[in-house]
Amino acid sequence: MFKYLDEFKHKVVLEYFSGTMGFRRLSAHHEVNIGSVKRWVAAYRLHGMEGISRKVTRYDAQFKLSALQYMWDNGLSMKQTAAIFNVRNPTSIGIWESRYSSGGLEALAKPHNHARQMKAPTKKPAAKPDAERTLDEVLKENEYLRMEVDV
């Protein structure tokens, strides 16, 4: 996902509030996804510049539960809840909901490692020198190469 500078987002939001362009024209004019523009405007309305500035936040279990409870009590969508609680990614709310339904408050409190470990490169066995190969291995390779040529 492409990250936009805070100044750019602020400029787009202010253009929207000036009334000269709507969401569709703004997104086309700036070559930005219309959903991003709508999200920036909603976040700016509720939280001002803080709503559209980049941040990396770790939410505690109680905050997550409060957001979920508010969403359930008021029949809100994940997007609406994310905007109200100033959560950058609405899908985080859905992840919290599924974790809570499967493991309760404890599941919300567990830290989750988002970084994936790289697999160690698998080493292919080195090809045997021709002198060590059996007749059967040479014939199989020959058959394989002939099939490749036929294709």
UniProtKB/TrEMBL annotation:
Residues 63-111 form the Insertion element IS150 protein InsJ-like helix-turn-helix domain. Pfam families: HTH_28 (PF13518). Residues 112-126 have a biased composition (Basic residues). Transmembrane segments: none annotated. GO terms for molecular function: sequence-specific DNA binding. Residues 112-132 are annotated as: Disordered. InterPro entries: InsJ-like_HTH, IS150/IS1296_orfA-like, Trp_repressor/repl_initiator, WH-like_DNA-bd_sf. Gene3D superfamilies: Winged helix-like DNA-binding domain superfamily/Winged helix DNA-binding domain. Belongs to the IS150/IS1296 orfA family. This is Transposase.
